[in-house]
């Protein structure tokens, strides 16, 4: 029987009405085996983080714990009959978990916010919400079991941004999930906490903010590797229809992207409107496991985004933007043809844990430009300036800019690029740097920040025909 791993984000867990919709979805997908991955209730992860970061402020800690409690109690009061079995179980769970959380906050106050503590604290959002979902399904007569993901997903030690160790995760999946899903006599909905895993020695890790998407794809990956059935799909339920070609904040009537392949989707997820966790496709692309992004309010809607191995090759899929970027340019006339300059630049930047998103260097090698997030700019510039090597031989310049990314296989055609630059030329928009790696279906264009909206609109208007096929 087919297995579907579905992820319900915080916007699917807001009130009684939302929980009823999960029940409707469970009915629609009655015939398949289901794994439900839940995120924390909206705003809880942020609240947990802020409390941990301001741990010396006892009043703030007390206030936030009370708020976290209230948000969960509000939900269980709506979805369960008062004093029913499932209400009591959920209430006891909330009480237990919050007292555990209080103890951790006390430890953090004493020992400091080590990365390990941060992940431990952040895990509580999903631990609370997923258990409540599990109790809700049971209270409606469905068979369901709660599984904390730290029993199944084993990761490396990179706290806050952990990477799954698939071999170990596969063995856990085999032991814990497969027997539940392959039991022909029961249709148990397996409810797994999103976002969290554990390292080999047992500390809780998290998969990066928005990581519940990733949990869903990691589980799909392991179920595919281990289970008998390769008929596996992932559905991410969101509060939007799917991925849009352009963020409607720039172009109001932007079209829905119905089909795209993993590479295209990775580019769009990286730059786009944070609808998809950028790393989550890594887990499913090798096995070509399809992923659907669907609107939670319209479970039967026939238009949604499907990410799979096939795509409409003849299209531009999307334009996305990084609004707050800084371009740093390192140049030197004397360092031309000297091996190792790029290595030194990126070593300096990476030592400061700053991620570089775009690199441009012409073959004359006189200058190298790269893009980082604006919030990291000061740190990066100081690091380069403090390095004897760079301060002696190089000039370092920087500027706050925006980056436009145009994605789709059609970008490989020179004609498409000509049309894009022609559009920018007509609006007199100055292109500050460009980058497209070999065979890459994404073109990145750096422009002045003030020209971003104009630039996106003119490219969209001029290349309208290329997007049209999307609808
Ligand atoms: N609750 C986590 C976050 O807010 C993970 C998720 O929502 O996917 O980042
Ligand atoms: Mg298999």
Question: Keyphrases for this structure?
Answer:
471 residues; alpha/beta; Carbamate kinase; VC0802-like; eight-stranded mixed β-sheet; six-stranded antiparallel β-sheet; binds aspartic acid; binds magnesium ion
Write the layout of secondary structure elements.
Layout: E1 3-8, H1 16-28, E2 33-38, H2 44-53, H3 58-79, H4 85-111, H5 115-122, H6 124-139, E3 144-147, H7 166-181, E4 189-193, E5 196-198, E6 204-206, H8 212-226, E7 232-238, E8 259-261, H9 262-271, H10 282-285, E9 291-295, E10 305-308, E11 318-331, H11 341-351, E12 356-361, E13 367-373, H12 377-386, H13 388-393, E14 395-407, H14 414-426, E15 431-435, E16 442-448, H15 452-462, H16 464-468
Parallel strand pairs: 1-2, 1-7, 2-4, 3-4, 7-9, 8-10
Antiparallel strand pairs: 5-6, 9-10, 11-13, 11-14, 12-13, 14-16, 15-16
Helix pairs in contact: 2-3, 3-4, 4-6, 7-8, 14-15
The structure holds aspartic acid and magnesium ion (MG).
Aspartic acid binds next to loops.
**What summary fits the major beta sheet?**
8 strands, mixed
What is the tally of helical segments?
16
How many domains?
Answer: 2
Ligand inventory reads: aspartic acid, magnesium ion
Overall pLDDT score:
93
Output the radius of gyration: 24 Å
Examine the coordinates and then state which fold CATH places here, giving the name of the CATH topology of the largest domain.
Answer: Carbamate kinase
- In CATH terms, the superfamily of the largest domain is Acetylglutamate kinase-like
Percent helix among the residues?
40-55%
CATH architecture of the largest domain: 3-Layer(aba) Sandwich
The chain-level structural class is: alpha/beta
Low-confidence stretches: none
The fraction of residues assigned to DSSP E strands is 15-25%
CATH class of the largest domain: Alpha Beta
Number of strands: 16
Report how far apart the termini are.
32 Å
What's the arrangement of strands in the largest beta sheet? 3-4-2-1-7-9-10-8
Give the overall silhouette.
globular
């Amino acid at each position: 029987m087919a297995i579907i791993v579905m992820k319900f984000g915080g916007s699917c867990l807001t009130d009684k009405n939302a929980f009823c919709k999960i029940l409707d979805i469970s009915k629609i997908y009655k015939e398949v085996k289901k794994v439900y991955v839940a995120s924390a209730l909206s705003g809880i992860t942020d609240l947990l983080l802020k409390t941990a970061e301001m741990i010396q402020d006892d009043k703030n800690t007390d206030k936030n714990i009370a708020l976290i409690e209230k948000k969960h109690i509000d939900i269980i009061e709506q979805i369960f009959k008062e004093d029913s079995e499932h209400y009591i179980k959920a209430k006891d769970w909330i009480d237990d978990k919050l007292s555990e959380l209080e103890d951790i906050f006390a430890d953090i106050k004493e020992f400091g916010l080590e990365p390990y503590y941060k992940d431990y604290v952040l895990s509580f959002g999903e631990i609370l919400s997923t258990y409540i979902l599990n109790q809700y399904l049971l209270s409606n007569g469905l068979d369901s079991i709660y599984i904390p993901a730290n029993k199944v997903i084993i990761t490396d030690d990179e706290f806050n941004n952990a990477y799954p160790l698939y071999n170990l995760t596969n063995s856990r999946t085999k032991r814990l999930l497969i027997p539940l899903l392959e039991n022909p006599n029961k249709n148990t909905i397996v409810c797994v906490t999103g976002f969290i895993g554990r390292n080999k020695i047992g500390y809780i890790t998290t998969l990066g903010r928005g990581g519940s998407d990733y949990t869903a794809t990691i589980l799909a990956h392991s179920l595919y590797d281990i289970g008998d059935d390769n008929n596996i799909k992932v559905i991410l339920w969101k509060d939007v229809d799917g991925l849009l070609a352009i963020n409607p904040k720039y172009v109001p009537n932007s079209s829905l992207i119905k089909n795209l392949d993993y590479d295209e989707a990775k580019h769009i997820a990286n730059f786009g409107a944070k609808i998809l966790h950028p790393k989550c496709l890594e887990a499913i692309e090798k096995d070509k496991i399809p992923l659907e992004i669907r609107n939670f309010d319209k479970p039967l809607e026939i238009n949604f985004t499907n990410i799979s191995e096939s795509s409409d090759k003849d299209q531009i899929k999307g334009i996305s933007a990084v609004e707050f970027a800084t371009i740093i340019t390192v140049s030197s006339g004397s360092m031309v043809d000297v091996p190792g300059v790029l290595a030194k630049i990126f070593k300096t930047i990476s030592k400061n844990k700053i991620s570089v998103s775009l690199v441009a260097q012409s073959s004359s090698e006189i200058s190298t430009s790269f893009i980082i997030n604006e919030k990291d700019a000061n740190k990066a510039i100081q690091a380069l300036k403090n390095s004897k090597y760079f301060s002696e031989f190089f000039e370092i310049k920087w500027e706050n800019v925006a980056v436009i990314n145009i994605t789709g296989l059609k970008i490989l055609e020179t004609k498409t690029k000509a049309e894009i630059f022609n559009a920018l030329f007509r609006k007199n928009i100055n292109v500050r740097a460009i980058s497209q790696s070999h065979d890459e279906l994404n073109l990145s264009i750096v422009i002045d920040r003030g020209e971003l909206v104009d630039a996106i609109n003119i490219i969209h208007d001029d290349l309208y025909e290329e997007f049209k096929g999307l609808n």
